[in-house]
Here is the input.
Amino acid sequence: MRDPARRALRRRPVLMTERLILRHLRRRDLPSLYLILCDDEVMYAYNGAFSKREARAWFNKQRVRYRRTGLGLWAVVLRETGEMIGQCGLTRQPAGDREVLEIGYLLARKYWHRGYAVEAAGACRDFAFHTLHAPFVCSIIRDTNTASQKVALRIGMRRESEFVKHDRGIDMLHYLYLMTADDYQRLC
Here is the structure.
């Protein structure tokens, strides 16, 4: 992809909030991404830390998503310092017997409990309804991940259902948190 206009578009932020920039991942983000995805505590909902090889595959998967749909998990960057502190974005994900538009979020441990996940996920929610005109958005959250469940609730989602997801060799119970466009209109 050598088109300068497309390259410039990739470099621009996808979303901005008061404290955060959400943008496409770049190769120079890999060390920060490794710190997040290779941390057992951060990745407990995924049944443990990723290897560097798995983290690199995750990175490549996001880049493919950007090219194909414009969506994916974006780098979450502090506006004040330019430091990448996590990922948040919109992806198409299987949820039981259907495919949904999911808001996903994952932050480096040292940035937990500061409201960044709520801020980033709320911006993604707004983008889904205002720009994509989505009829609904979801978050798929492991049953043991109470912190992420609280984020979903704080941005106005409600727990709709549960299903078992087979990932990394094991079956894991997940909850589907959901917000419809009508729910969003009532929230605004």
Remarks:
- The chain has one domain: 4-187.
- The chain is about 35% helix and 35% strand.
- The longest helix spans residues 52-69.
